[in-house]
Specification:
310 residues; eleven-stranded mixed sheet; 13 helices; 48% helix
C-alpha cells in the first residue's frame, strides 16, 4: 500500500505504517554530501541499526532514478553512497525537477520532512538542522529547513542546528515560524559538535514518553514541525572554544572564495573536517547515531501511546 501516488514505500515500511508500528525517517544528504565514502555508507548502516535496536523501523528517504523512495534496501543505500559527486542534493523545492529528470538525489532535512509527511511518518532523525547562515543580513542565506519546519508536521530529533550557522538568528526565525524547540533532557540548545551553545530551548522534557506526549499533543492541535534537541554525548563533543575558532576560519575562507547557497554547508563541513584532523567526522557520526537511538525510543513510545488510546 502506498500512502501517496508519487511515493514508493518499501514493503516493510508500508506494512509498518498500516499497522501503526514505530517508524523513524532518515535523510540521505548526509550520505551524498555530508560525509566522505566509505564513512557515509557505514554511518548510514549504523544509524539504521540504532533505530532497529530501539525497537523501531528505519525509513531512509531518497530520490532514486526520479522516484521518491521511503525505505531503501542495503544495495540501494550502497549505490547512493557510491554515486559520483554529480548526484543532486534535494531540498523540498528541488523534488519536482529531480523527479522529472529521473535522477538520484540525497534529500536534505526539508526534502526529507516533505516526503516523510507525505508518507505519514511523524518522527525524523538527523544530525543537525540548517538555519540562518552567518552574514544573512546581507546575503539572505536562510535554510529552507526552517520554512519547512514551519509548515510540515514532523518532529525532528537533532543535535541542534549546525554550528557553522548563526544560532541566535536561527532560533529567532524558528520562533517566528511557530516551531517548538524542545530539549531532550536538556535546558540548553546544543551547538552540534558541542553540548551547549549558551542559548536555551523553549522547554525541557525528560524521557521518550514525555516527548512522545508532546508530539501527540502537537498533532491534535494542528501544529507544524517540532525541533527536539538531543545533545552530542559528552565523551564525543568537541569543546566549544576549539570548534568556534575552526568554524570562524572556515567561514572566512568560504567568504573569500564566494561560496554560498547550496555549496556553503558542504564546503564548510569539509573544511572543518580538515582543520580538526578528522575529529569533526567522529563527532558527527556519534551525534547522528545518538539522535537515531533517541528518535527510535520516542517512536516506540508514541506508537505505544496511540495503541493504548485506541
Amino acid at each position: 500500500m502506498t500512502a501517496h501516488p508519487d511515493l514508493l514505500l518499501s514493503p516493510e515500511i508500508a506494512e509498518a505504517l498500516a499497522a501503526g508500528a514505530p517508524v523513524v525517517a532518515l535523510e540521505t544528504a548526509i550520505v551524498t554530501h555530508g560525509m566522505p565514502h566509505p564513512h557515509n555508507l557505514s554511518t548510514a548502516r549504523a544509524v539504521e541499526a540504532e533505530i532497529r535496536a530501539a525497537g523501531a523501523i528505519p525509513a531512509t528517504i531518497a530520490v532514486i532514478d526520479g522516484v521518491m523512495r521511503v525505505g531503501l534496501t542495503d544495495a540501494e543505500l550502497e549505490r547512493l553512497a557510491a554515486l559520483p559527486e554529480g548526484v543532486r542534493k534535494a531540498s523540498a523545492r528541488d523534488l519536482p525537477a529531480a523527479i522529472a529528470a529521473k535522477v538520484c538525489a540525497g534529500t536534505t532535512v526539508a526534502g526529507t520532512m516533505r516526503i516523510a509527511a507525505m508518507a505519514g511518518i511523524e518522527i525524523f532523525a538527523t544530525g543537525g538542522i540548517g538555519g540562518v547562515h552567518r552574514g544573512a543580513e546581507s546575503t539572505f542565506d536562510i535554510s529552507a529547513d526552517l520554512t519547512e519546519l514551519g509548515r510540515t508536521r514532523t518532529a525532528v530529533v537533532c543535535a541542534g542546528a549546525k554550528s557553522i550557522l548563526d544560532l541566535p538568528k536561527t532560533l529567532e526565525v524558528l520562533e517566528t515560524m511557530g516551531v517548538p524547540i524542545l530539549g531532550a533532557g536538556t535546558d540548553a540548545f546544543p551547538a552540534f559538535f558541542s553540548r551547549t551553545s549558551g542559548l536555551s530551548v523553549d522547554a525541557r522534557l525528560d524521557g521518550a514518553g514525555a516527548l512522545a506526549a508532546a508530539i501527540d499533543a502537537n498533532a491534535r492541535i494542528g501544529g507544524a514541525g517540532m525541533v527536539i534537541c538531543n545533545p552530542i554525548p559528552e565523551a564525543d563533543e568537541i569543546p566549544a572554544d576549539r570548534i568556534a575558532a575552526i568554524i570562524d576560519q572556515a567561514v572566512e575562507e568560504a567568504e573569500a572564495r564566494r561560496i554560498g547557497g547550496k555549496g556553503a554547508t558542504p564546503f564548510l563541513l569539509g573544511r572543518v573536517l580538515e582543520l580538526t584532523g578528522g575529529d569533526s567526522l567522529k563527532a558527527n557520526v556519534a551525534l547522528v547515531r545518538n539522535n537515531a537511538r533517541v528518535a527510535g525510543e520516542i517512536a516506540v513510545a508514541l506508537s505505544s501511546r496511540r495503541r493504548d488510546a485506541a
